[in-house]
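Hello again,

I reread your note about wanting to compare the complex against the isolated chains. To keep things tidy I'm splitting this into two emails, and this first one only covers the full assembly. Below are the input lines as submitted, including protein chains and any nucleic acid or small-molecule components. They are followed by the predicted structure of everything together. The single-chain runs will come separately.
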Amino acid sequence: MERAAGPAPEGGSGGPRRSVRPAGPGGAAAAPGSRQPSVETLDSPTGSHVEWCKQLIAATISSQISGSVPSDSVSRDYRVYKRPDIREIQDGHNGYHSEAEADQVALRDGNKLAQMEEAPLFPGESIKAIAKDVMYICPFMGAVSGTVTVTDFKMYFKNVERDPHFVLDVPLGVISRVEKIGVQSHGDNSCGIEIVCKDMRNLRLAYKQEEQSRLEIFENLVTQAFPLSNGLGLPNESWKISKINSTYELCDTYPTIFVVPTSVKDDDLSKVAAFRAKGRIPVLSWIHPESQATITRCSQPLVGPNDKRCKEDEKYLQTIMDANAQSHKLIIFDARQNSVADTNKAKGGGYESESAYPNAELVFLEIHNIHVMRESLRKLKEIVYPSIDEARWLSNVDSTHWLEYIRILLAGAVRIADKIESGKTSVVVHCSDGWDRTAQLTSLAMLMLDSYYRTIKGFEALIEKEWISFGHRFAMRVGHGADDHADAVRSPIFLQFLDCVWQMTKQFPAAFEFNELFLITILDHLYSCLFGTFLYNCEQERLKEEISTKTVSLWSYINSQLDEFTNPFYVNYENHVLYPVASLNHLELWVNYYVRWNPRMRPQMPIHQNLKELLAIRAELQKKVEDLQREAATRSISSSSARGSSSSHSASPVRTSV
Amino acid sequence: MLSGSKNSFKIQPHAQGPALRGAKSSDMNDQRNCQAFPCIPGEHVLEEAARVRKIVCSRDGQESIVGTLYCTNLRVAFVPEPAPGDTVGAPRCSTCLHSEHDVALPCIGRLVAVNSFTKAKVLTASSTLKFIPEELVLYCRDFRVLRFGFRDSGLEYQAFQVTLAIVQAQESCNGSAGTWYDSTAIRNLENAWLSTEELSSPPTLLFESPCDWEKELRRLGAAGWRVSPVNERFDMATSLPKYLWVPSRLLDNELKRAFGHFNARRIPRLCWHHPGGSDLLRAAGFHADSDPEKEDVRSVEALMLAGHAQCVIVETAADLPSPAEIQLSYLKLRALCLPDSSVADEKWLSALEGTRWLDHIRACVRKASEVAALLAERSRSIILQESDDRDLNCLLASLVQILSDPHARTQSGFQSLLQKEWVVAGHPFLQRLNLLRDNDREESPVFLLFLDCVWQLLQQFPASFEFTETYLVALHDSSYIPFFSTFLFNCQWERDRRNQHRASNQIYAPVNGWREPLPLEILQKGDRLAKETGGPYLPTIWDWALRYTTQQRAQFRNPAYARGSSSVPNGNLVPLGGDKLEAALSGNGAVYLFAKGGLSMQTHLFPWKNGSLSRKGWRWAQSSESLSEQDRSLRSKPTSCPLQPEGLLLPASVGPLIRLWRRCYLRGSQEVQRGLFASTLAELAEELDLLRERLGA
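Full-complex prediction:
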């Protein structure tokens, strides 16, 4: 089987591990010969790449919450990408793609309708297959017939007979699974495919069996969709930046540099690494600027059934405790359930025993594993897509346990943050490997403790550090490019983290600089593979695949239009620790994300514009006040009489934010 | 200071009412503080405790404010001690009733005394308090929970006394409606407290005078309608307002013939006129003894068709919960939302679903948007018909207007709407809210359900309303405060009698109508006292300045409000298609029945005209043969409303979009960090004002 190209935006950077095979029971029916050659490397200059990414996503935004939704042009089904006019963009570069493709289509079909239903393309994007008279079986409005186009980036379906035009635009990265399904219709030799998406929707297409060309679509969908299978005052006297991992020898899933206690020797680090699963030694995540209490993260100790001990590891944890003069205790938060941790012991893993670590207190946070979370999300999808059982909506949400798991996670993070802030005690967080629950907990606790991470830049740094650098296995958990939808290593761990963040933004609406769209955008591009940010599993892989030169970071796109992602109510509560209420009556299902495909769930009317205007007025008034104050100040200085209290007085009530 | 014998105290039911008891005068301390406490006329302090800590939630977790706790004959009040920086003697608050620290006695739902050595004890007049309470928790009926800590005060005796006094005062205020009418001498304060600042905003129409009715009718541009003073002396129907909007061509003589045909003589009358020509009317069900053969049925027909070729009768009760169901649901909701709820966290959502409160909201929102769509679809008259026209008709009529009329989404428009469709229309607030606990059987918070519906709309259309969530919470709280005329009466007739005491010969006894439910002695007592005090009016709830400071009121205004926002159908399909209906509606004076989301043709205006139908009262018999299926197909077809005016809102009512009003119902939760939960929109507005102010200075 051949290797398929990576999505065009990445510039064909795919490093496929898997061969492609059609998934699903009907997969065998596909004739291998009908596949189109699809290897294609397209180099687009990085500058223009950013430009069209912007164009692409500007459209995304306008069709989502913030922008004004022109009701006349938006069809009733939700679209991921609404593009103003792609042709214009293409002309701006070189039009040969679109012209060539258009000619091709015209030649092939000679059909006006099909031309109108043709997909708009980005520069560098190429059409792999076109099929007309395909039925999209919309769960909300019934069957819609139209033309399907598969490119090396997306699947595009359009119907122009309806008014407004009906469009379906699915980046291939969003697709989790494609299955052939039998369509029972009288004598008609139809068959269908079901496209299961990672973003909470399933799409069903039906077409007539006998027309051979249709097979292309399925083949291409399969081949194209699965191309693969700061600022903490460091170092200080207690903590140093270590470069021992510069060649990823100590730990291949850690970054090259991290922060460890100053007094620990490199030899000892190696021994500790040998005692910790996957060599993931305790490293510093966060240090309290005043109390010096720290959050360190690691994987489980390899205690095993015989209660093996490691002197260096024990000393290491003691050193972490000693680095904080405020407390004579160290809390180890094991994210797992106690029983599971015990089971792990039999498999060579385990947890820190009290006898070996006398000054440490071990707390189990009782968080379930990735499989439980995956199952919970699957159930959640079942109850939100396509139809919602209104009468039993809440108990159905209850039965998925999704919010319950969110609660447990938040509660765990609150405990960590509280130990640091109120107890002034250092904590060590681990689960089994220290890249799923550990990343969730440390990053949530950091969000609660440190207002920097609640800014847009800070949040990006948080994700880069706690998730990307420290080896959350994005490719594996999301299943980028892999066709094995049933892969047991997939799990919505990162989604769950962002859901927790969303819950916090709901509870503290003024404490975060970013808005809901920011979080949704991150999630959309977690799957879209349009940016390199979430590709691969760890820094080492990314370095090898030259992600930084071949792809663009999601953050460059986001930072280039901060306006769209800024929370107008943001007030920087500096040095303020947030403790979200981790109780189900204060948690809500993130409806704007999970249920967004339901046309009856059209989001509330946009007030983004109103708010922006208000903010503009505020900024203007603030400026005037400042001007007047300055004027008053100079006047009072010149008169040298009674100093006005205006300057000191003004600081408190007027917030200078946004 | 504390004698051993005082440790246990059996609370004796007092022979005297609290109003008649004099203020304690034995203690010098008391005297001094009594003067410090800003009593309203008619109010006196029964007991007090100094250096009490009120436990509040703040940005930094729990905090406490030190102050004095008073128990008066009207309320439990807490006056914070001036902070060190404050100038001594400066008034702590600029309102005469404090919305945050005060609880009117009838609003107290449950009193719990807490002591670290024993388990918490629910206090009633017959219970024995065997310990010195360290903390007193007041569970209010408006979902607030107030906590007062005595522990550090060193004044155990006071703690004991004030607790007992509160228990006693609260018990004895129940069922004594009279106390509230007369001792609420707030009426005299009104002029003093209401400053001129209120004048800047457009006034709320109270619909007590004919000019309010005229004014509103002009605003609606309802040409074919006039204001009829036929019920000016409440001699047509006691529960109806004094003035009615009726078709211009119908003379009062003809009109009078229609009254007998409706329950409680509540005839069809105009609520709202659609700019596209449709009219929204409301009426009670047909009276069981109404005789269709009588000549005066013509008046009824003229009233109902109101000059339109088509008349749709909306059976209000058909899809909506009954008042009893609402009450049941509300009790469950309250039990669930109180902080001591026993529901396990994992079961919270299921338990919430089990209350059915959100289901009821969904039903109301859905029905209202269906009716709003019917109104916008083509020119017709739509009559909301409910058996007694005093509960869900109020809710539905006002919701439909909020959806259809942008004016109803301004603060003054909304308040005027509530006056028109609830207050003067005779929603029995006293019975339904049961503020004075006269009769638990009639209790049903239909009005609170309505407020929740409005909150849902506010969530879905955040820029369409001039007011905020804070305003709705204030309105919600106000319904448990017995100092205002708005929610203290069952109908306008009653309100007028109590409120503006005139010579008794001006009040006509009701003929044939709805009977006054108030106990006679209260009326008599009220009369006597009304003569004594001779005050003009009890204030209405709309005098916000009495309870809310300027800053608090600034938070009522929605900064994101876009005046005249264009129509936003929020993902909901318009329920009925026009064209198919058109064909069916060729005949003149066609009557349709709208129930369960579908229209069905009626052969006659009156169900009993068919002859075969039993005269079982007002209820319509479903005469349609399998029309429902056709209706379904009509419903699912999205059509544009040809008569759609600017600003028609069609809310969605799918499961995930109907939410729990957390800020209202979960206020008692100790975990809530209030500072950060505050409505940020309102904060923004406040800040803007501050800046403007500073610019002006």
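For quick reference: Chain A touches chain B through 57 residues (CB under 8 Å).

B.
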